Amino acid sequence: MKNFTVLRNIQSFIGHFRYNYSMQRSRVSTIKNLDTGSVPGNVILIGMMGAGKTTIGKLLASQIGKTFVDTDHEIQERTGVRIPVIFEIEGETGFRKRETEVLREIVQLQNIVLATGGGAILRPENRALLRQHGTVVYLCAPVSELQRRTRLDKNRPLLQTGNLHARLQELYTQRDPIYRQTAHIIIDSGRQGVRVLVQKLIQKLLQFKPERTEHPPRQPSPNKESE
Ligand SMILES: Nc1ncnc2c1ncn2[C@@H]1O[C@H](COP(=O)(O)OP(=O)(O)OP(=O)(O)O)[C@@H](O)[C@H]1O
Ligand SMILES: O=C(O)C1=C[C@@H](O)[C@@H](O)[C@H](O)C1
Ligand SMILES: [Mg+2]
Fold this sequence. Notes:
binds (3R,4S,5R)-3,4,5-trihydroxycyclohex-1-ENE-1-carboxylic acid; EC 2.7.1.71; amino-acid biosynthesis; 6-stranded parallel beta sheet
């Protein structure tokens, strides 16, 4: 019965999301002619839970004049429920399907800073989408710091475990190579404060030179710039 009610909520909020989403699209189209600074195209943040994708993404977007979008937030808006409820009803597989659907749409937007979910890079289709539609930045932080930042959070279902450090270590070992392969730029987000980090990231983005042979207008090169 509880599941049925939640599923009805999911359906009823789809219409609500479509409205929000079309509003967001029109906001994007109204800002796209403004001077958005010299960082071209979309900036896409990837990395582990707690790496700072949402936190850094918001500040970065405001500093370089782009629209901030967060896939986790969009999924919650569409369904009308929090991520743990989606995991509870549909499992991780259901959540991943929703994540891909949302990503396919969001990457079509222009001039955005996109904070992805920590597991968004797990599907090859998603990795290709991200690389084709923006400069992909891996925010890299050590497990001890990720643990410190996420230990009180109840909204990350994969971290609701008796041994948080072991769980994060397991995910890190599995994902770190994938984040590195997917990224155009890698930056340490573990040891520096948010403002300093955003300034350094802007410098890296400004220095980044996409290859001309890649997808126009700003398809980035496979060369990584690591700190
Ligand atoms: N550079 C930083 N220095 C210190 N604290 C940070 C830094 N970046 C983020 N934090 C803190 O870490 C916590 C998690 O950050 P955030 O929610 O941005 O991570 P996330 O990468 O978006 O995680 P998720 O994948 O689960 O969405 C927040 O409390 C935030 O304030
Ligand atoms: O790392 C992950 O797999 C996840 C990270 C969060 O951003 C959410 O997307 C969800 O909790 C799964
Ligand atoms: Mg986030």
